[in-house]
Fold this protein.
Amino acid sequence: MYTSTIETANIRCLIKSEEIKLISLAKAQYEGFISQGEPDIEIEIHNDLNAGKYRDLPSADLKPNYGHINIISKGVKVFFARSDFAGYIDMKNRRGEATLSNLSAVPLDSCLRICYALMAVIHGGFLLHSAGVAIGEKGYIFCGPSESGKTTITRLAPSSTTILSDELTLIRKLNGFYRAFGTPFYGDFSRSGTNVSVQAESLFLLKKDKKVYLQRLRHTEALSVLLSNVFFFTTEFNMTKKLFSLCCDLCTTIPIYELHFLPDGTFWRHINDIA
Amino acid sequence: MTSPEDYIVPDKRTASRILEKEAVILTPQDSMLHTLNRVGTRIWELADGTRTIEEIATIISDEFEVEKATARADILGFVKELEGKGMITVRKDRTSEVK
């Protein structure tokens, strides 16, 4: 069995497989996020969706779906499937399995994102559909769905900034403070974030507009924004309750704004004004 | 049918928090987030299973300066709505637990 351990936000996921090519792929894909530390979860990856190696998938009520990921929670297990992969994560025993239809980064990366979506909550954080940018020791998080401008924000960041991600930033409370962590998960920016963390300073909901301004949100509005943009994959009650509590905590801790912006970088002046 | 002598508690399947004097309630079974206004939030705060609906109506009547009959009728309607959404449980007996 070949292995590689990925680490982000101090959460380590060990990937193991009998396919050395898959582990080599993982090491290349997640360069900068490879760790030697003790894993928090182990995922065994198989190749070939039709090989019959996947035993526990409740296939009667969960069928792979093109594009969308089908998710079912059964007790402590979360089952997931798409056209190119299927698997489960056992949150109690901190292990999982996944079978990929082909040896490529896309299905592997999707499985890992699901794993981190769950593990983050277990460890007092969450993955947020967001671009994250670090300016010095301060982290600025820009959230929104696809096509909202996350990659644009990333591309327009000043040269002195560090990119945490243009797609999924991990927010986690450590030592009483919320920190924003770089992740290896990227979108159109086409490269991993930097494996660093900074204190989460402000969070912005992106709104493309014809003028540039910030509008501070009330806590209830901010909570709705967070919950709408969290990357999360279970309906298990205790996990959902924990995520809700984390989001409530965050929106009362850091300011959350609507950022109305033009795709020309002028919005950075407004952000600097509140820094 | 709910009566003013009944007690009300948040449903155990909900998660809630008061943010800037507004109650936000998550019903995980449908992932819906509900926000209550000032009066609704106050009723939610009082719904800990130790007060009857009638006692809550007395408090609401005093604090919001409305007729008690109006408060009672509004609360009964509100409880019916929340119960329908799985947010509140109506009990015949006083609970010994405080939320």
